[in-house]
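User: Predict the structure for this protein chain, please.
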Amino acid sequence: MASATARPRPKRILIVEDQAILGMELELLLSHAGHEVVGVAVDSRQALALAEQARPDLALVDIRLKDGATGTTIAERMVAGGITVLFVTAEPELIPSQFAGAFGVLMKPYSAPSVEQAVDYCLALREGEDPGPPPYPLRLAPWLSARLESNGPH
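Assistant: Here is the predicted structure, written as structure tokens:
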């Protein structure tokens, strides 16, 4: 089993969070963990523009943004463009049953270790590694859980 914490190079991460203090906190946590934060978007327009320009490995996406856009709409577009998405939300009931293609959801409030573990886990899966069971409190999308049960991470 490959370690979900081993990173040969920093991964590029986009944060989509309309609460400035939470966006800055995530940016600090992820930078401290050795990742490259390519931007913090506060609305859907900025999120999609940054995603197209920066081509991140992973996007952390809040489910509800103040501009009225939903994280699920943003996630669908990012996933279609080959970007791995992890929802970060306090409102999991707003996530559609198939998670709009996102790998999973990390519930707010979160801790620094839970963010790092969830991000590393999703990045390991993206790379085709087998990081084992998901760390608490990461909840995997049903489509991904089914795939892992039947085929493994690939």
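The mean pLDDT is 90.
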